[in-house]
Design a protein that fits this description.
It is built from one helix and two strands. It has about 45 residues and is an alpha+beta fold. The protein has one domain. A hairpin with a 5-residue loop joins strand 1 and strand 2. About 0% of the residues are buried.
Length: about 45
Amino acid sequence: MIALFIIVGCIQYLNDKEQIIEEDDVFTRLKLYQDYCVAHTKLSY
């Protein structure tokens, strides 16, 4: 299975008070993917 996610700009996650609690962009997704690969393979980045 192959998944393709296209993120244009930044996704902001807000709490009940509409304060930003987290942000996602291409760089945070790339880091998440690289961390996953390192944890599940013998490759390192």
